[in-house]
Write a structure and sequence with these properties.
heterodimer, A: mainly alpha, two-stranded antiparallel sheet, B: mainly alpha, 12 helices, 74% helix, globular
């Protein structure tokens, strides 16, 4: 209950700060959509030159992208902590967070909520619906529940991975270049993973399970392929719980080790 | 005066050297990017020999060279300028006896040199071992490419400076900087060569400065551009460099009149 009211207070606060920079809000929404658009343009351009990508048609790859946008939008709204190391560790804001009773990760996340990112989720949903009808896929009410479950799992995977990444700043003194690294890798989980070599596929599936936020769960709704990724689809929520628990463990352990930057 | 400017290059180079550990992870990032796009393109080609005039080998080389070139010309001048405008330190810079924008350019170049020596060169060597990249043998091509690469840096930095200066007008230009980064990556041809774009889009691209950043130099380097057109292609870069000076000068003139410092 206390956590819920905290959430409300932070959102109110967010609205106030954002209304100061009104024009910027819309530019951010626009740039978000443009960023998603860029990836979509890439897919569209690619399919002008080939009918299929590792056995996947254009509509299917776009469908996967549409699915991916939904958990990604939710994740970006609540986990926009790209500059955690710089702001909280280097500048020492973590000290302030730790003097308060609420869980430190919860506070850090709420201080950085970014609701405009949610618009990406809506666009993703629209793309998915369009592809759904274009591909002539059957639709049952049960699918909606499975979809919710898969989205939740995907968000948890993202959340766990980025919590773990941010927690690394507790252990290493120098701000590391790992976040941009992940930022790139996450993109590759959206394409049919069978086009990569074995090692990359293994990494994307089991070590940094970005395939579980895109191509694997989305394949649940699509026609079966030779490599049958859809068998793994229902594992998404399980992976989500595992990855998020690991991330949280690493964070909690990191907070205990944290000594403050001084100055 | 000139020697003072050169000192800015030197100082930035040394500053970057202090944080060089970050750059080893940077090389891995770029190698992974090149690897992923290599497999992606491999799948796109399937068993076709050429697409949009690129052979598979040319494409692999194009991907490797374009990403490594990005390592050289990429900088955060837009963010630096925006931050200095926001925290007010730009006011101090303005009363100093040098041109603020030239100093920024020099700092960017110091960073670029650092990235070239400690990032692009070792990165390229690693990538050549991992993927079937075929580098040109003609020393003239290398020479032309290096000059064009320098202009890539100039044009990209000019676009960055322009984006950064917008902080004078919109107070918080975070969204705009992100938008610029996305546009530069897509429209410069790092992700997809412009020749692959559908006709109408590539027609628009020919009238925008982005292709001069990656597509034109990389096409020359991979041998996609016929040798009699090289001079013309280089001319496009020079034109954009000169052309972009105009909006920068205009924005800068308008910006100095508008400066107000938020807090501090």
């Amino acid at each position: 209950m206390r956590y819920a009211s905290l959430f409300l207070e932070y959102i109110k606060n967010y609205a106030k700060t954002r209304l100061t920079y009104r024009a910027d809000f819309w530019i951010e929404v626009l740039s978000d959509l443009l960023f998603q658009g860029m990836n979509l343009i890439f897919i569209l351009i690619v399919f002008q030159h080939t009918p299929s990508l590792g056995g996947w048609s254009e509509a299917e790859v776009v469908f996967v992208y549409g699915f991916f946008m939904i958990p990604y939008g939710v994740f970006s709204t609540f986990f926009s902590i790209w500059n955690f190391s710089e702001r909280y560790i280097v500048k020492g804001e973590m000290d302030r967070v730790l003097t308060r009773p609420a869980h430190s990760l919860y506070q850090v996340l709420l201080e950085n909520v970014d609701p405009p990112s949610l618009i990406g989720s809506f666009v993703g949903a629209i793309i998915m619906v369009l592809c759904w009808t274009q591909l002539g896929l059957p639709f049952e009410i049960l699918d909606l529940f499975v979809l919710m479950l898969l989205i939740l799992g995907a968000v948890l995977i993202y959340a766990g991975l980025y919590t773990a990444l941010s927690a690394i700043s507790f252990y290493s003194d120098a701000p590391t270049g790992i976040v941009p690294l992940m930022y790139n890798i996450q993109n590759y989980g959206r394409y049919p993973v069978n086009i990569y070599n074995k090692m990359i596929r293994f990494v994307l599936t089991w070590l940094l399970p970005f395939a579980f936020v895109g191509v694997i769960p989305a394949s649940y709704f699509l026609e079966k392929k030779a490599d049958d990724l859809s068998q793994l689809a229902l594992l998404t929520p399980v992976m989500g719980i595992i990855v998020f628990s690991l991330g949280l463990l690493l964070w909690n352990h990191g907070v205990k080790r944290y000594r403050g930057a001084g100055s | 005066m000139m020697s003072a400017y050169i000192d800015f290059i030197r100082i930035r180079f040394i500053m970057m050297l202090a944080y060089r550990v970050n750059y080893y992870s940077g090389i891995i990032i770029y190698a992974i990017n090149i690897g992923a796009y290599y497999f992606l393109w491999q799948a796109i080609y399937g068993d076709k020999e050429t697409l949009a005039g690129f052979t598979v080998t040319q494409m692999t080389t194009y991907v490797a060279v374009s990403w490594m070139a990005r390592a050289f010309y990429f900088n955060n001048l837009d963010r630096e300028i925006a931050n200095e405008i926001r925290d007010g330190s730009v006011a101090v810079q303005l009363i100093r006896p040098y041109s603020y924008l030239v100093v920024k350019m020099m700092q960017g170049f110091g960073e670029g040199l650092f990235r070239m020596l400690l990032f692009m060169v070792p990165g390229m060597i690693i990538v050549c071992f991992l993927f079937p990249v075929k580098l040109p043998t003609d020393p003239m091509t290398w020479l032309i490419y290096l000059v064009m690469l320098f202009f890539s840096f100039l044009i990209n930095s000019q676009i960055n400076i322009l984006t950064g200066l917008f902080a004078f007008f919109v107070e918080n230009n975070e969204g705009m900087m992100r938008m610029k980064r996305v546009m530069v990556d897509l429209f410069s041809g790092v992700v997809v060569p412009i020749a692959f774009f559908p006709g109408w889009l590539s027609a628009i691209m020919q009238w925008l400065p982005f292709q001069a950043i990656t597509y034109l130099p990389s096409s020359v380097f991979t041998g996609r551009t016929p040798s009699d057109q090289i001079l013309q292609v280089f001319g496009i870069q020079v034109l954009w460099f000169v052309g972009l000076l105009v909006p920068i000068w205009l924005t800068w003139r308008a910006a100095r009149k508008r400066l107000f410092v938020q807090g501090g």
